[in-house]
Amino acid sequence: MAIHAPPQVSAPQPAAAGAAGQCPPVASRHCLPPDRAGAWTIPLLCAGIAIIACCLLIPAADENRRLVYEREKLRMDLEQIHRQIAVNDEFLHRVADDPTLLERLAQRQMKLVRQGTSVLELKGQSDRRDLSPFLLVTLPPPAELPPYKPIGGRFSQMCRQPRSRLLLMGAGMLLLATGLVLGVAGRRAWADPLD
Description:
mainly alpha, 54% helix
């Protein structure tokens, strides 16, 4: 009489997590497919990086525009100075070469009138206190540039203010951290569903 051992029944093996794109049976209610596990990761990371980049780039661009404005103002002043130098040089050469101009300047400076001539009074120019010859060669100042005005709306204004820029950078870092945590948590829940 031969004794036969009972046939061994093997326990059903749980399906490997993520095999063939299906969730394990135990965690089927809480499991997302692998392509949806980190669906919010990329948008949150992009939003965080965009906010931080705006907080860094908008003030730098505004400073560059302000420097260009100042450079244009200085360029106009330099052109005015060069024109004034040219007029002064021409006047000095004419004074050195023209005795009639020299005599007229001396009479003007000493407030003398040649005998047989009279002073022509012009309307609106009755003030003759300053008879300096330098007024003859003075050029009018260049046209004023309009005051500097930064471009952009409310968001760029917030990026220029130190306190609101700090808050925006904090919000951007929070979005970055949230995106990273959601991405890692989604992958971990898919890889280890029984925890």
